[in-house]
């Protein structure tokens, strides 16, 4: 095929995909080419702009290593991560909603017993978290594996401190026979997502702030139920309506209550979706 022009090239590229063995790959690539070409036409992309885009993606890739995933962060601030979560976690009414996983989960977090302090020295205001893991009919889910992780009072996760060699403000617990769990930690505070890379550059260029409202991450696993990846957000946080990664859902907002001794409590129940 020769003499392709701006009106005929899209069809030619799509036809070139005809021999793709994997049907799903063919569907995805066909749609990607269509949308990519439509985008270039819509904005009347110049050659300079095309090259700036290539340079931006190259720099984004160069920021990635085993501790930093700038492409996921880019997907997060463009709302693609949350869109994918929302499309793939359409649960029955009454189930706890899912939200983004985020980059700060670490495999192999320490295991704790009911009532233990998962802060393990992390700076912050002491806080007790209590709740029940239930199924959709209100049945308690015993022995659910509950992973929690959060930032400290400075808005940093333990993995963001280069010299720190033990996990802080993260841990794994199990719900009791009645589905209840209870642990001590520190109060979650709002924090900015990493903005010293290409994602930060994009946020500044588009007049956006990098803040996430205060939240506590949970991942809850139990046999015969779908794994739940979610957060509990802190009621009253100033960033609830402008989360940098679009992860807030009203049903996930919890009330951290101040106690007379200066500590806080959070009570929050989780409802798991029965497995498919
Ligand atoms: C987080 O909540 O840990 C997070 C999520 C998306 C991007 C950056 C941080
Ligand atoms: Fe987080």
Automatic annotation (TrEMBL):
<dbReference type="GO" id="GO:0008199">
    <property type="term" value="F:ferric iron binding"/>
</dbReference>
<dbReference type="InterPro" id="IPR000627">
    <property type="entry name" value="Intradiol_dOase_C"/>
</dbReference>
<dbReference type="Pfam" id="PF04444">
    <property type="entry name" value="Dioxygenase_N"/>
</dbReference>
<dbReference type="GO" id="GO:0018576">
    <property type="term" value="F:catechol 1,2-dioxygenase activity"/>
</dbReference>
<dbReference type="InterPro" id="IPR050770">
    <property type="entry name" value="Intradiol_RC_Dioxygenase"/>
</dbReference>
<dbReference type="GO" id="GO:0009712">
    <property type="term" value="P:catechol-containing compound metabolic process"/>
</dbReference>
<keyword id="KW-0223">Dioxygenase</keyword>
<dbReference type="InterPro" id="IPR015889">
    <property type="entry name" value="Intradiol_dOase_core"/>
</dbReference>
<feature type="domain" description="Intradiol ring-cleavage dioxygenases">
    <location>
        <begin position="129"/>
        <end position="157"/>
    </location>
</feature>
<keyword id="KW-0408">Iron</keyword>
<keyword id="KW-0479">Metal-binding</keyword>
<keyword id="KW-0560">Oxidoreductase</keyword>
<comment type="similarity">
    <text>Belongs to the intradiol ring-cleavage dioxygenase family.</text>
</comment>
<dbReference type="InterPro" id="IPR007535">
    <property type="entry name" value="Catechol_dOase_N"/>
</dbReference>
<dbReference type="Pfam" id="PF00775">
    <property type="entry name" value="Dioxygenase_C"/>
</dbReference>
<protein>
    <submittedName>
        <fullName>Hydroxyquinol 1,2-dioxygenase</fullName>
    </submittedName>
</protein>
<dbReference type="InterPro" id="IPR039390">
    <property type="entry name" value="1_2-HQD/HQD"/>
</dbReference>
């Amino acid at each position: 095929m020769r003499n392709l022009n701006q009106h005929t090239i899209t069809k030619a590229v799509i036809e070139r995909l005809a021999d793709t063995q994997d049907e799903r790959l063919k569907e995805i690539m066909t749609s990607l080419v269509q949308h990519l070409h439509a985008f270039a036409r819509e904005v009347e992309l110049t050659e300079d702009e095309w090259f700036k885009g290539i340079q931006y993606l190259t720099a984004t890739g160069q920021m990635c290593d085993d501790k930093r995933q700038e492409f996921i962060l880019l997907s997060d601030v463009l709302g693609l991560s949350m869109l994918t979560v929302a499309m793939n976690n359409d649960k029955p009414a009454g189930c706890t909603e899912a939200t983004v996983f985020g980059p700060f989960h670490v495999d192999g977090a320490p295991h704790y017993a009911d009532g233990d302090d998962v802060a393990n020295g992390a700076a912050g205001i002491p806080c007790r978290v209590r709740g029940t893991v239930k199924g959709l009919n209100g049945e308690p889910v015993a022995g659910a594996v509950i992973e929690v992780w959060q930032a400290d009072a400075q808005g940093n996760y333990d993995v963001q401190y280069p010299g720190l060699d033990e996990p802080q403000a993260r841990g794994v617990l199990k719900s009791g026979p009645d589905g209840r769990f209870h642990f001590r930690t520190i109060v979650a505070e709002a924090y900015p997502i990493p903005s010293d890379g290409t994602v930060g550059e994009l946020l500044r260029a588009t007049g956006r702030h990098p803040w996430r409202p205060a939240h506590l991450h949970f991942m809850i696993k139990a046999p015969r139920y779908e794994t739940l990846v979610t957060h509990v957000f802190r009621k009253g946080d100033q960033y609830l309506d402008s989360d940098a990664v679009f992860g807030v859902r009203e049903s996930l907002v919890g009330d951290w209550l101040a106690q007379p001794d200066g500590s806080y409590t959070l009570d929050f129940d989780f409802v798991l979706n029965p497995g498919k």
